[in-house]
Design a protein that fits this description.
The structure is a single chain. The chain is α+β, with helices and mostly antiparallel strands. It folds into 2 domains: about 290 residues, no CATH class; about 140 residues, Conserved hypothetical protein from pyrococcus furiosus pfu- 392566-001, domain 2. It is about 30% helix and about 25% strand. It has 12 helices and 22 strands. The strands form 4 sheets. Strands 1, 2, 5, 6, 7, 8, 10, 11, 12, 13 and 14 form an 11-stranded mixed beta sheet that branches. Strands 15, 16, 17, 18, 19, 20 and 21 form a 7-stranded antiparallel beta sheet that branches. Strands 3-4 form a two-stranded antiparallel sheet. Strand 17 and strand 18 form a beta hairpin. Helix 3 crosses helix 6. The longest helix is centred in the first third of the chain and has 20 residues. The mean pLDDT is about 90.
Length: about 450
Amino acid sequence: MRTGVYPDLAVMAPEILIPEKNVDQSKWPVIACDQFTSEPEYWSRVEDITAGVPSTAHMVLPEVYLESLPADRLDRKIASINRSIAKYLSDGTLTELPPGFILLDRATPYHASRKGLILAVDLEQYDFTPGSRCRIRATEGTVLSRIPPRVRIRRNALVELPHIMLLINDPDHLVIDPAFDELKTSGTSPVYNVNLMQNGGRVTGYYAEAGSAVSGRMLRALSALLKTSADGFLFAVGDGNHSLATAKAHWDSVKESLSEDEKASHPARYSLVEVVNIHDAGLEFEPIHRVAFGLSAEDFYAAAGTYFTDQGFRFFTEEEWRRDTPSFGEHAQVIPVISCRGNFVMVLTAPKHSLAVGSLQNMLDHVLSGRPHVRLDYIHGEEAVRTLAAAGNLGFLLPAISKDSFFETISREGVFPRKTFSMGEAVEKRYYMEAKRITVKE
């Protein structure tokens, strides 16, 4: 077995690339490329901040440009990215650590601490197909059309930079926290300790070499977690579903020309990720609400009454609900409906889907299929929903997903409906700090 590979866990201790010590670390990390896609001014500020200095800004393609740039300009931008990566590898801007892990602590404007673990996972043990029983599983449906443009970016890249966050179900905090605390209190110097640009907070990382006592205890704790899984489920994709799917698609393409021995050790087989405990107090799940444009409350009521005819459908005005709030049992689903003509409460007492978001999304998909003039949007924040509803649209407020039942729901349902939850605010997403080779060293 290859040194630093732990096949039972689908884990590998990668040779992590970090910026050398003379790089201005305040300008090196930039936020995940899929953030602020409707705010090009954010990325313009990033370009201003990082102009002429080493930065991951020159190694990634912000998705704000994916649809806005013509094909020829996109090709030039990708080529420029690959030149920057090659330069950073050749001139020593990037330095490679021996096989190991990085344990980190992230502070944001919203939470003082969120612990994480940087490692690589085996893409042979990941499948985004709903119902998969692999070690690593998607949490939402994968939109296949989103993968080819991202594979195009990855195809000729020498390294990857991760914004993927995988979740583990560790209620007793046995995997990450003890290892981080041990490194911090042992006098070990951090490999980075940096303020993140544009109000991103701060991140501090400590390196643990593969084979060290700290790494050994951490891996044994992961093994103990796996033993508590009824169906071999260890990692859930919290952020970056499509990025991990892209890494998988790229690896599937690469391995076609490899021998079996080459497949076992090729760096593209392993994807760099940050692992976070779902029970970390600094990780907050926010519900993603819905707003329907061009759908009246009356049309919704009529369509819902038909669609949910065998699911115990009830509809109350807000006044009726407040005056005499009925009790329908623990399995009932309650969804507030916001309208400029009054607010309502929809109740399903015998829902077919175990989640309110699943019941609503399935019904809205059915409604939209016969009403091309109706548009659905996914909204963060209750106030934004109420503002849009006041303008004549129909809003739906959804409950937050429970951390305690998260893994159980994935095992049972396969994946969550699309746009079910968000892990924190935009500035709390990963910043690119580490990298890993995905091509064989020359």
